[in-house]
Amino acid sequence: MLRIFPRRSLDVRYFTDDPARELEGLRPQGPGWWLRGAGDTTDPECVRGVLTSSERASVVGYDIVLAAPRPVSVLLAIDESSGAALVAAHRHAVAAALGYLEERGLSVRSQLAGERYDHAARWESVVAYTHGVNRHGEPHLHDHVLVGARPTGEDAVLDRRGLSAHASAADALYLAALRHEVNARTPWRAWRSFQGVEHVVGVDEGYRVLWGGHHEGRGEKIHWSREEARATWRDDLARYHLEGAPSAPDRTFDPHAFAASFEGALTVTRRQVVQAWAHASTFGERFARIDTGLDSLAPDLIHERGVREASITVARARGFAPSISRLHALDRVRDSARHRERERDSRESSARSR
Fold first, then answer.
1. Is the Cβ–Cβ distance between 211 and 134 less than 8 Å?
2. Mean pLDDT by 10-residue block, N- to C-terminus, for the chain (354 residues)?
3. Phi-psi region of 113 (alpha: psi -120 to 50; beta: other; left: phi over 0)
């Protein structure tokens, strides 16, 4: 899930004071400037430098929160051997979502000769804090990404409407990239149902009940150590009850879910097609594949960005489904061939060792 919170305060101690020790040993690059920039992530003055604004604006920046679906976060507690790979998968997906949001949603409005123009912009520095628990000690893999309200080299702040317009597409890309990376980096297989529910094959729904994240109170902010988090999870598991795990479908792309995304729409924008493609990719998809694939299918939409994107007809958008399905079918053939090749190499290696 992706959410965008405007920040009006330069107080960043909520981030700098939390070392996220619950993820010790699982973050090869540590917290902070793994996206863009450099600095001491425990120094409030250094981190405040990211929050740039203008004299007239009250918003100094944004806290963009990207959180893994509950079944993926649960893997931190039930499969410690995959912990580092899960964090890496999550960070890769965060980078993909932020890359899209910056490329398509980040713009600044200017006025020339009475006419208003939107032009592309870029953040000079991006600081991100990766965490593995919520306030109640439940497994909750998420990032707080801090960006400034005024992009680099600009006199004015960014147009918040552009970020809001593309937030749903960026969220869909994050989830699709996360499913793809979890499946590529770990022994687990993440997938999305037609109803839009995120699952992991073999992960019982009882875990979603056990660590549902819903509590009456918000809870106190506690800085958990790695061992404290693990001990809490072990205690929680003593209350665990089996609920059953749903079976994943065989398809890698769901054309019905893709078409249903446009139900009730009069026209369709590029960002809506991106969102539909990402959500219809049952086992995930790479951001680059969606981006370049859509540019090939709709070259007239290549340069569309911001709030006022040009639109196409619903019929044309739905007509992309067969081409996307063929791309996924080709991937499946290639993946099967690579799997057979790895198995053959493994057998040959075992034979040589004997």
1. no
2. 96 94 85 88 95 93 97 96 96 97 91 74 94 94 96 91 96 98 96 97 94 81 91 93 92 96 97 98 95 95 92 97 88 57 59 61
3. left
- The Cα–Cα gap between 272 and 171 comes to 12
* CA dihedral for 212, 218, 219, 222, sign (positive or negative): positive
What is the rounded CA–CA span in Å between residue 310 and residue 74? 40
Tokens of 138: 């439940």
Q: What is the pLDDT of residue 329?
A: 80
Q: How many whole angstroms separate alpha carbon 9 and alpha carbon 170?
A: 25
Phi/psi of residue 305, nearest 5 degrees: -160, 175
For 107-144, the pLDDT digits (tens) are 998 766 667 778 889 999 999 999 999 999 999 999 99
C-beta separation of 161 from 307 below 8 A: yes
CA 79 and chain centroid, separation: 21
- Give the predicted TM-score (pTM) of the model: 0.91
DSSP string, 60-97: -EEEEEEE--HHHHHHHHH-GGGHHHHHHHHHHHHHHH
Instruction: Report how far residue 240's alpha carbon sits from residue 211's, in angstroms, rounded to the nearest whole number.
Output: 10
Distances (CA, A) of 196 to 199, 251, 269: 10, 15, 21
Q: What is the largest CA-CA distance in the chain?
A: 80
Whether residue 189 contacts residue 89, with contact meaning beta carbons closer than 8 Å, is answered with no
The tokens describing 144, both together, are 């707080």
What's the CA gap between 213 and 236, in Å, rounded?
A: 13
CB of 149 within 8 A of CB of 155? no
Q: What is the CA radius of gyration of the chain?
A: 22
Task: State the Cα angle at 88 between 42 and 70, rounded to 5°.
Answer: 95
